[in-house]
Amino acid sequence: xxxxxxxxxxxxxxxxxxxxxxxxxxxxxxxxxSLKELANTVHMPLPVVAxxxxxxxxxxxxYRDKGICLTxxxxxxxxxxxxxxxxxxxxxxxxxxxxxxxKRPEANVALDQAYARPETSFRRATYASQHDALSGRxxxxxxxxxxxxxxxxxxxxxxEKPKRLVVVDIDSRIIDLINEASETYDLNIExxxxxxxxxxxxxxxxxxxxxxxxxxxxxxxxxxFLTRASATLEGGSGKQGFLSFGNKDPDTDHxxxxxxxxxxxxxxxxxxxxxxxxxxxxxxxxxRMIRMLxxxxxxxxxxxxxxxxxxxxxxxxxRSYNCSICGKNHRVGNNCLYSHIEALKKIxxxxxxxxxxxxxxxxxxxxxxx
Length: 370
Fold this sequence. Notes:
By secondary structure, this protein is α/β, with parallel strands linked by helices. It has helices spanning 2-10, 16-29, 35-42, 46-58, 72-81, 91-101, 118-130, 148-155, 172-185, 219-232, 250-262, 311-314, 341-347; strands spanning 62-64, 68-70, 115-116, 138-142, 164-169, 190-193, 210-213, 240-245, 265-278, 286-294, 318-323, 329-333, 357-363.
């Protein structure tokens, strides 16, 4: 909106129009907020916020009454921007998401799939809404086997919904499920079947204000997904990203945050154990949420990306499992009959048909000549 840009220029606000919107959202959500509290809420220096307040008062957007308040014109502006306060999901919405989630196909661990629990998907949607990242925004989700798009569309009322809600995923099974749910519940989710190792189509570039991603567990996967995310965002700073990524050792985490920085993002908040998954043993069934803002820098990547991005490709291995009934040993993994334990469970023990197995550990790669 041009008014926000004009105020940002007049107040010399480096955060631009997004910074003005953040200030308006904080005033809308905190009646009669003091200047000091407002500065603390939006994480800006007090003199800077005071300059913005003056510019908004000159335009009859704000006034003072035992704190900072919205005028009627300001209330209309906030409504037009789609700034809303959002609580958590009602129980019936959680039941709907659980029902949709129960239709998901078996997780494809070759794609590092591990399905988030429905409560986690709603937690993401609520958290993003509380940070004014959804209503009236163009929102894109890069990889959505967790059905975060459905949680967003269910959670927000019609007048609060994103302007555009887009999913990009490599798995046609997930795309088909989201399309079916979108049609059944009138969710207006736009789906694209696409491999992010290939450059995004033009209509998905430079057009979004918010993104979500829960990338493969590898650093190469993180780099690819964040680079593609960067390419989806509008110009200017202050666009929000919500990254779900597993906990790593300190040396690997150094690489994680180096990639985040190189892709032009600045972490704002890190919440440990935010996401809970069915499966996902590689990351201990949990991961953290990293909320980020974009700077003006954008990451660039060639049209195709040839590095291995999935755990199974970067660390091919075999594991051994024993049947819990007859004890027969089965090998799972690279160059085995079963590529992962879920595939073995589905078929069952070749000796007795049982589908419960006990891990017997990782099989060390045999050296040539031994």
